[in-house]
Design goal:
Strand content: 15-25%
Largest sheet: 6 strands, parallel
Structural class: alpha/beta
CATH architecture of the largest domain: 3-Layer(aba) Sandwich
Shape: elongated
Oligomer: single chain
CATH class of the largest domain: Alpha Beta
Number of strands: 12
Number of domains: 3
Number of helices: 13
């Protein structure tokens, strides 16, 4: 049995099986006199063939809650994504929309499952920070459902006319961090963290690589999980394998915070022996020891802006531009400036 039938059949499956539109199936389920008897019988046969069961109470609930927006987030454990989801949810709430939030935990199969469930429960729109892999399983049903979908922070669905993409200027952030460290006297700057080869890693790394090429400096790259644990392990690897590295740009702040503790254990003074810049500027950066420099993305503002763009689309028919990127800045603290 294929993936599509491993879950409970939906109204979209009925429409595909019967060869009619989703709206025609809806009319049949409502016993509308507008549907021809022949078409009604065709839809009923399709429902029986695929095992579709109509949940009338759920349908009534969907009608009563037309202002329901889905938020699908790839990693809610990361404070960066938690801040985005919270800010977007509060912005929707301020305009009277309820939200349903799902964490996919970087699992493409789970993402497809929760998206199908949100479609079935009648969300009016969906904002998704997607994980990578099996894109058709997630975005295919969304395209067929015909609801507004905004992909944010990660560009996974290539058709940005159908699925507009909004993010931050990560490439410029990498450039700001590299220029800051080299202008501050660093001789060898490493880039640490991020899964190898995925677009978000390449994007955050791209500004760093361009600056190093312009300055004639050889890069040092250690890719890996975007976690504190990886950052802690990377501190030991850099010290052992690349002792010449005296500055580090991290894929995100979690990696950077792990790096701080790793260097502390090794007796290397961050801000003096080695300088560190994170990425995202989560709240913990200003409270770390030493305070962590970071590329600030104003994720709360971005979350509000993403919700605003979706509300304009829902309420005013103003489709967002195909691609947009919000500006970033660098917040320099003791981890890259010294005491």
């Amino acid at each position: 049995m294929g993936r599509s039938m491993a879950r409970r059949p939906t109204i979209i499956d009925v429409a595909q099986s019967a060869g009619v539109s989703k709206s025609t199936v809806s009319l049949v389920l409502q016993d509308s006199p507008l549907v021809r008897d022949e078409t009604r019988a065709q839809v009923r046969r399709a429902m029986a063939d695929i095992g579709y069961v109509y949940n009338r109470s759920a349908a009534n609930l969907r009608t009563a809650n037309a202002g329901l927006v889905g938020l699908v987030i790839n990693d809610l454990r990361n404070p960066f994504f938690t801040e985005f989801a919270t800010s977007a949810q509060m912005a929707f709430s301020a305009r009277g929309y309820a939200t349903v939030i799902a964490n996919t935990d970087e699992d493409a199969g789970l993402q497809a499952q929760v998206v199908a469930s949100m479609i079935e429960h009648g969300v009016s729109a969906l904002v998704i920070s997607p994980t990578y892999g099996s894109e058709e399983d997630t975005f295919g049903p969304l395209a067929r459902a015909g609801i507004p979908v905004l992909q944010v922070l990660r560009h996974v669905a290539t058709d940005t006319e159908a699925f507009p993409f909004a993010s931050l200027d990560y490439a410029h952030g990498g450039r700001l961090a590299a220029e800051h460290l080299l202008d501050g006297g660093a001789a060898r700057v490493a880039f640490v963290g991020g899964n190898e080869g995925v677009p978000i890693t390449l994007e955050r790394m791209s500004g760093y690589l361009k600056v190093l090429r312009e300055r004639g400096v050889e890069p040092v790259i250690l890719t890996g999980r975007s976690s504190r644990l990886f950052g802690r392990e990377a501190a030991a690897r850099l010290t052992e394998e690349h002792p010449e590295v005296d500055a580090v740009i991290c894929f995100n702040d979690l990696v950077a915070l792990g790096l701080l503790s790793g260097f502390l254990v090794l007796g290397r003074r961050v801000g003096h022996d080695v300088r560190v810049v994170g990425f995202d500027d989560i709240e913990e950066c200003s409270m770390a020891f030493p305070p962590l420099s970071s590329v600030r993305c104003d994720i709360a503002g971005f979350g509000r802006a993403a919700a605003g763009a979706m509300l304009d689309w829902l309420e005013g028919g103003q489709r967002p531009v195909a691609q947009s990127r919000a500006p970033v800045s660098l917040v320099a603290r003791a981890s890259s400036l010294g005491a």
